[in-house]
């Protein structure tokens, strides 16, 4: 029976009322009295040496308060990186400084090198045009392999070269892996690109800095997924403001998808400038700026090899990846292609030997960091494409090949460090096959053929590690932060609760699902529970929302804090009922004593806590407020099986996704409707990556897809009705809710099935095409079928996922 | 956006005289011009809005049976009023999205002559006549003479399009292959069969903007069937636009595919 309230109920998202009626309070809605506006002057060249910047004319323009350049930030900290990766040889990665405004050089199109603060944004823009900058154009490096060649121009003159790190994982396994390849009965090899993406949240970034002279404190309002992280990074590493003098507020945030995790220069600028001019300073990104200043996602160029024995058991896996860091290291950039990618290369399979090599490369492009899935889509895409290719080469059923190699016993220690606690990959595969009517596919293919279309069926599995993350483990791996989460539960005298969480909601529906958890635990209506987040002034130190961690880690902290509340409330109830606390039960909002008819209501107990007339003051304090921190002892491992059917128009190469099915194992589910919505959104983004989205640079480092005229986002009609099932549930064994996280699965699991389906369609018509790089745009598919050039501007680009060029493999 | 004066004349005569001023520019629906201004890529002293001139709005039929669309008619209004020419109505109905169609005008589209715009294909494919009014009075320009390459037309400085006269063919269709980001045509073909021959206009493909594919017109004039098109070689790809969204060869290929599809749709 579906429940209608509490854990397991599809409660309607309470936040949607304000979002859908225009009542949300976003950062751009915040206007502080007396605020000035800043406009950034951004580089229009990919690489250049700043000889001089003349701001005199600009400073004299109407309304201008002050013009800033990099020189104003000498002695100020630089934007820090939150993760240090150690390379194959035990050396730390190369870590260049990232000044708030460019100093000495500009390093990508969009790199800010001056900023005008004026009374209005229009005046600031006018004045920005009056700045005269002498910037000498330098040869940019765009292609990652070319960037690593001897003598390549350096993005950062003070570094040895453009190699951030050369990471081997697990380095000790390398020789054994190589040997397994020598002994393999069959080796399948695939070279592929994971295309660079622009996250494109609906709300562009905004920052408002405010300085209060009366107490020497600063406030930053910002579009962030993690206000406390920004407070720590910006306060401690950039501006030298202690946390008790700095408040960061991230109010309603209109989508993040990872790109609002990071600490950005504009945030530090507004906070700094507000103090410098003693006026609040506001910046609102234009969409055009967002394309060239929000951290991009993905951008890997990989070679993957799979070794099999004569019985088709996977014996070893070897990958070599070039991962684009862009021009500077964004907050978590180094961790994405390593610890969120290499550790997932075992996938759902018991491959005993895995070796992953990742070369992270600086180029004159926008920094690249986490984007929905972050490293795990890149791992899944390689693995599930190569398994599909192997099945084709061996002439075996791709489902059977997967099943043969599935991990079936848990816990399972992978050869890439992580230990999967639970899972049932056959169950999700069975469920998937039930959803997609595989037996009926041939008839559907014939029907498509009759209409002149090629139909293909593609499927894949995925596993991801989320619920990020055990602090001690990530500390060993180079994280410069802990990854626990926090909650304070405050019960009011009249029985209502305020839950202050360190997680942040920017579309995920936490205000609804977190309330369901607490209301279920106590047995009171959901509307008695208010969820507060997004302001460092009224929430405990939290690490924010990303990596599908909020329910698994943040929700667990809420459970722990609520447990403490219940334990204390039971003592109060026991006192009121003159019973032993051990005999008191809480159910449906009432405390009872087992075996008696004694009962007190929740509200009586909460009132007693704050009006302690009849109260065990000698044993317990008045009040009912508890804080808990929860640090997970493992990642969580959602998994599943996805399938997709496409039709390819052989005349134009256009791909239509006809159907999509997702069978996920998310462990326990708190709100099935929200979970389905998360999967829908993730799948839409995955289809976008597979077919449409392409962040392309030309060889001069100009961003070709710098607006919606050229960057194709998926629209409603690009996405079919999606069958979503999450009835396969192997609860997480190590968090109190048994939940695994569902925010990224759709984006992780969907691209390979789309590409597998297109390859299936082309092969069915006799085209010997084994791979096409994403996005599978019409010209690319057409070119693959006809051995022609798909697009203009740059040919096949093997060190570059970002070029306009493209590859198909025959 | 830079500052400008906005004037809102209510007659063609007033608009023409306002446009004689220093650095004046006409504003149709603003669906091309406003984004350009917002990006600070266009600057003018005076913006002369044509939205308040009733005499250039709407569709009527002239004594030669031509459908005459006022230059200030929006795409949406044209789509509704062109029931006598379904292929053209369908072209108008598929431009952009509802917001764009509610504001954008046929006159603005033809004057702008974007190499990927829809109306130029409809006008050239129909053999339409464009009526332009300037300080020297009114003149009629044949579509064959009007389009002179990407973003270049026969309009003189300060001239506005007041009307476009479309002869109505026996059969016609417009087939549009979408550029996936902008949803403008990547390549689109407008095919119209008149009693005295067939016209084929292609947009989106050529570096010279909209053009007539004469080989196809000849083949179709003697045999109006998709086979007549598929039997032809695709036009030369070297003069075609080559970009992120498709090579010249791909566009040339699509010219043939879209033309054949238009013929099928028209038949
Ligand atoms: C999201 C989006 C999608 C679009 N999709 C398509 C599409 O699929 N197909 C397509 O064809 N177009 C598309 N467009 C463009 C749209 O059709 C515009 O309406 C059209 O290009 C310009 O018409 P306008 O009336 O808006 O002109 P404006 O933007 O006002 O003006 C454009 C130019 O024409 C001049 N001008 C305007 N009216 C006249 C006139 N009567 N006489 C002389 N000069 C004039 C102006 O001075 C200016 O130089 C799209 C636009 C947008 C924003």
From TrEMBL, chain A:
GO MF annotations in UniProt: iron ion binding; oxidoreductase activity
Domain named Aldehyde oxidase/xanthine dehydrogenase a/b hammerhead: residues: 21-139
Annotated InterPro entries: Ald_Oxase/Xan_DH_a/b, Ald_Oxase/Xan_DH_a/b_sf, Ald_Oxase/xanthine_DH-like, AldOxase/xan_DH_MoCoBD1, AldOxase/xan_DH_MoCoBD2, AldOxase/xan_DH_Mopterin-bd_sf
Enzyme nomenclature, EC number: 1.2.99.2
Enzymatic class: oxidoreductase
Record key words, sorted: Molybdenum, Oxidoreductase
Domain of life: Bacteria
Name of this protein: CutL_1 protein
Organism, as annotated: Jannaschia aquimarina
Name of the gene this protein is made from: cutL_1
UniProtKB/TrEMBL annotation, chain B:
Enzyme's top EC category: oxidoreductase
Record Pfam families: FAD_binding_5
Transmembrane segments: none
Residue stretches making up the FAD-binding PCMH-type domain: 1-171
Keyword Lipoprotein: no
EC numbers, comma separated: 1.2.99.2
Source domain of life: Bacteria
Protein name stated in the entry: CutM protein
């Amino acid at each position: 029976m579906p429940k209608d309230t509490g854990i397991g109920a599809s409660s309607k998202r309470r936040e949607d009322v304000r979002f859908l009626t225009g009542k949300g309070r976003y950062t751009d809605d915040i206007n502080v009295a007396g605020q000035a506006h800043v406009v950034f002057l951004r580089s229009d060249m990919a690489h250049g040496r700043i000889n001089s910047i003349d701001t005199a004319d600009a400073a004299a323009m109407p309304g201008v308060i002050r013009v800033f350049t990099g020189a104003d930030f000498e002695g100020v900290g630089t934007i820090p990186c939150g993760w240090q990766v150690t390379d194959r040889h035990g050396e730390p990665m190369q870590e260049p400084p990232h000044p708030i405004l460019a100093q000495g050089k500009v390093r990508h199109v969009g790199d800010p090198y001056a900023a005008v603060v004026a009374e209005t944004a229009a005046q600031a823009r006018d004045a920005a045009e009056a700045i005269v900058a002498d910037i000498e154009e330098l040869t940019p490096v765009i292609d990652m392999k070319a960037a690593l060649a001897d003598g390549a121009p350096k993005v950062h003159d003070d570094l040895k070269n453009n190699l951030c790190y050369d990471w081997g994982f697990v380095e000790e396994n390398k020789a054994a892996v190589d040997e397994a390849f020598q002994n393999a009965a069959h080796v399948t090899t695939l070279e592929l690109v994971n295309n660079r993406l622009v996250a494109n949240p609906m709300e562009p970034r905004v920052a408002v800095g405010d300085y209060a002279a009366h107490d020497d404190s600063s406030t930053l309002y910002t579009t962030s997924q993690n206000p406390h992280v920004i407070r720590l990074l910006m306060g401690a590493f950039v501006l030298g403001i202690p946390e008790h003098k700095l408040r960061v507020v991230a109010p309603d945030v209109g989508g993040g998808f990872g790109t609002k995790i990071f600490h950005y220069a504009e945030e530090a600028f507004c906070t700094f400038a507000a103090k410098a001019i003693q006026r609040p300073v506001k910046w609102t990104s234009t969409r055009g700026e967002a394309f060239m200043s929000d951290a991009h996602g993905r951008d890997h160029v990989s070679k993957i090899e799979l070794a099999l024995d004569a019985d088709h058991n996977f014996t070893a896996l070897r990958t070599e990846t070039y991962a684009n860091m862009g021009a500077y290291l964004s907050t978590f950039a180094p961790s994405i292609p390593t610890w969120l990618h290499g550790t997932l290369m075992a996938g759902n399979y018991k491959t005993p030997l895995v070796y992953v090599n990742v070369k992270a490369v600086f180029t004159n492009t926008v920094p690249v960091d986490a984007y929905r899935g972050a490293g795990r889509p890149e791992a899944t895409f390689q693995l599930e494409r190569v398994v599909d290719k192997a099945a084709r080469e061996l002439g075996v059923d791709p489902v059977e090949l997967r099943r043969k190699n599935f991990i079936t016993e848990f816990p399972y220690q992978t050869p890439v460090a992580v230990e999967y606690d639970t899972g049932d990959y056959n169950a999700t595969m069975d469920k998937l096959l039930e959803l997609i009517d595989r037996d009926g596919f041939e008839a559907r293919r014939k029907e498509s053929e009759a209409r002149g279309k090629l139909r293909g069926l593609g499927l894949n599995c995925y596993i991801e590690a989320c619920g990020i993350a055990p602090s001690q483990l990530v500390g060993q791996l180079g994280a410069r932060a802990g990854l626990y989460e926090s909650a304070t539960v405050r019960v009011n005298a009249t029985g209502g609760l305020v839950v202050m969480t360190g997680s942040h909601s920017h579309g995920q529906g936490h205000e609804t699902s977190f309330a369901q958890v607490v209301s279920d635990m106590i047995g009171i209506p959901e509307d008695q529970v208010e969820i507060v987040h997004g302001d460092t002034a009224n929430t405990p130190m939290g690490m924010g929302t990303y990596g599908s961690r909020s329910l698994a880690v943040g929700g667990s902290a809420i459970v722990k804090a609520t447990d403490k509340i219940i334990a204390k409330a039971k003592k109060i109830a026991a006192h009121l009922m003159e019973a032993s606390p051990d005999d008191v039960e809480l159910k449906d909002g009432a405390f009872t004593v087992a075996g008696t008819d004694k009962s007190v209501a929740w509200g009586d107990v909460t009132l007693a806590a704050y009006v302690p007339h009849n109260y065990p003051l000698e044993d317990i304090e008045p009040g009912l407020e508890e804080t808990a921190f929860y640090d997970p002892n493992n990642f969580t491992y959602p998994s599943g099986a996805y399938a997709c059917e496409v039709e390819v128009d052989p005349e134009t190469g256009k791909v239509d996704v006809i159907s999509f099915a997702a069978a996920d194992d998310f462990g326990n589910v708190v709100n099935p409707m929200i979970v389905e919505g998360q999967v829908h959104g993730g799948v839409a983004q995955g289809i976008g990556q597979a077919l449409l989205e392409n962040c392309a640079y030309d060889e001069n480092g100009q961003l070709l897809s710098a607006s919606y005229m050229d960057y194709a986002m998926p629209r409603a009609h690009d996405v079919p009705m999606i069958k979503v099932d999450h009835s396969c549930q192997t609860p997480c064994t190590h968090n109190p809710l048994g939940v695994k996280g569902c925010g990224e699965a759709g984006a992780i699991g969907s691209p390979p099935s789309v590409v597998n389906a297109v390859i299936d369609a082309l092969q069915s018509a006799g085209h010997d095409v084994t791979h096409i790089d994403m996005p599978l745009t019409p010209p690319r598919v057409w070119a693959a079928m006809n051995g022609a050039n798909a697009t203009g501007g740059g040919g096949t680009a093997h060190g570059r996922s970002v070029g306009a060029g493209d590859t198909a493999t025959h | 956006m830079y500052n400008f004066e906005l004037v809102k004349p209510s007659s063609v005569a007033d608009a023409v005289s306002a446009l004689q001023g220093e650095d004046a520019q006409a504003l149709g629906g603003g669906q091309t011009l406003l984004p350009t201004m917002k990006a600070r890529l266009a600057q003018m002293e005076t913006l002369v809005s044509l939205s308040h001139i009733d005499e250039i709005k709407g569709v009527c039929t002239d004594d030669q049976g031509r459908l005459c669309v006022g230059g200030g008619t929006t795409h949406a209004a044209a789509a509704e009023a062109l029931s006598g020419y379904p292929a053209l109505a369908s072209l108008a109905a598929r431009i952009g999205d509802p917001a764009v169609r509610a504001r954008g005008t046929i006159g603005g589209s033809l004057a702008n002559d974007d190499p990927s715009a829809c109306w130029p294909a409809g006008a050239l494919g129909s053999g339409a006549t464009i009526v332009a009014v300037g300080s020297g009075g009114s003149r009629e320009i044949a579509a064959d003479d009007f389009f002179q390459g990407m973003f270049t037309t026969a309009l003189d400085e300060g001239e506005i399009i007041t009307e476009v006269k479309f002869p109505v063919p026996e059969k016609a269709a417009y087939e549009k292959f979408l550029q996936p980001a902008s949803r403008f045509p990547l390549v689109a073909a407008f095919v119209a069969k008149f009693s005295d021959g067939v016209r084929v206009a292609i947009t989106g493909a050529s570096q010279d903007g909209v053009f007539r594919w004469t080989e196809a017109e000849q083949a179709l004039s003697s045999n109006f069937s998709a086979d007549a098109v598929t039997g032809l070689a695709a036009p030369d790809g070297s003069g075609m636009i080559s970009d992120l969204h498709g090579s010249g060869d791909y566009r040339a290929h699509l010219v043939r595919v879209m033309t054949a599809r238009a013929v099928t749709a028209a038949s």
